[in-house]
Every structure is written in C-alpha cells, then in structure tokens.
Amino acid sequence: MGKEKRGISEVIGYVLLVTLALSMAVLVYDWLKPNAALQDELGCPEGAEVIIKEISNNGTHINISIENRGRFTIDWVLVRVNNISNAKIGTFLVQRNTTALDPGEEEVLVIKKNPGIIDINDNLIGTVSGNLYYVEVQPIIYDTAKKKTRFCEKTSGKEI
C-alpha cells in the first residue's frame, strides 16, 4: 500500500514539472512576441529597390536620375549628400517627396548648388559648405494596411 502512494507522488511531481516548464515557455513567448513583430515592420518588403541611374554635374546643378527597379511602388525617396571626397555614405539628409514611383518608372531630381546652399527641385533644404562628392538615395514605402511608414534598408549611392 505504501509503494502505491510513493508512485503516485512521483507522477504528480513530473506533471508539476512539465506544467511549470510549459508555463515558463508561454511567458517567454508572450514576452518576446512584440519584439519579433516589431522587427518585421521596420524594413521594406523584399524586392523594394531604387537605383541611381545617372548623375550629371554642370557646376550649378546636379541632375540625379533615379529608377524604381523593385516590385513595389515607392512613395518617397530620402536623398543624402556628402561634401567629403571619397565618402561612401551620405551625411546631409534631404527629404524629397516624390510622386509615387511605380515599378520601372524613372524620375530626375535636380539639386541646385548655390554658394553654401542646397535646394532640390526648388525646395530649400539647408546649407552645406564646399562641393558635393557623393549622393545616396533610400526608398520609403507607406504600408496602408498597417498605417506605417517603412524605411528600406537597401540604399543606392554614387560618387559625383
């Protein structure tokens, strides 16, 4: 009779151990779930890409020809420029609201170079001293279903 009670208490111990382990797993999952969902919402969908096709510099203007080579409509483009030679990243941010670029569409952005002032398509942006040596574009997509702006990680840059 004593052995039966001892066997039941071991089974109860294992049931409690498994229940505790499953409860901890559910708590950890609930704690990590919002962080995992946030990572998915930050970037653009795979296949969103804007490239710089051509840059021409005539001394007073810089014409930047961009093309949407992706599978999605691009709502905006961030343009960054740098005034340091041999730069590989744009540091001065210019937000350019474009008309939406559908896949395969092109647009030419015109940057006027006034002494110490940069404006893009007649919108005053700010001041940058010296010459411009590097231009970088970054696509932005507005996700209407989730009502969120998604900044694409993939950028395109070229030396001027």
Helix-strand layout with pairing:
Layout: H1 2-42, E1 50-57, E2 61-68, E3 76-82, E4 92-96, E5 106-114, E6 117-120, E7 123-127, E8 134-143, E9 148-151, E10 156-159
Antiparallel strand pairs: 1-2, 2-5, 3-4, 3-8, 5-6, 6-7, 8-9, 8-10
Given as residue ranges, the uncertain stretches (5+ residues, pLDDT < 50) are none
| Strand element count | 10
Shape: elongated
Count of discrete domains: 2
Mean pLDDT: 79
Number of helices: 1
**CATH architecture name of the largest domain:** Sandwich
Order of helices and strands: HEEEEEEEEEE
Estimated share of beta-strand residues: 35-45%
What's the end-to-end separation, in Å? Answer: 91 Å
| Sheet having the most strands | 5 strands, antiparallel
- Name of the CATH first level of the largest domain: Mainly Beta
Radius of gyration: 27 Å
The third-level CATH topology of the largest domain is Immunoglobulin-like
Helix/strand/pairing category? alpha+beta
Strand order, largest beta sheet: 1-2-5-6-7
Helix content: 25-40%
